[in-house]
């Protein structure tokens, strides 16, 4: 489940990076619409649903190792950003 959470976090972060780049092309490509640009870069419903389901499954399966769910989330975000920066995706 942690792997699926990390995959969804990576997809959301990658889409966010694409969206940050597409902001410069709002007028030319999206007629000035932020929502069109956002929907082109992120499949919000799909990734949000999978992230919530994977996150809940991961939280349910935590074995009480003393680490909080927030720490797991932060580490997964950091690892995905590192993969994006290093071009490992």
TrEMBL record:
The keyword Membrane applies. GO terms for cellular component: autophagosome; endoplasmic reticulum membrane. InterPro entries: STING, STING_TM. The chain crosses the membrane at residues 69-88. One of its GO terms (molecular function) is 2',3'-cyclic GMP-AMP binding. GO terms for biological process: activation of innate immune response; autophagosome assembly; defense response to virus; innate immune response; positive regulation of macroautophagy; positive regulation of type I interferon production; reticulophagy. Residues 3-88 form the STING transmembrane domain. Keywords: Membrane, Transmembrane, Transmembrane helix. This is STING protein. It comes from Nothoprocta pentlandii.
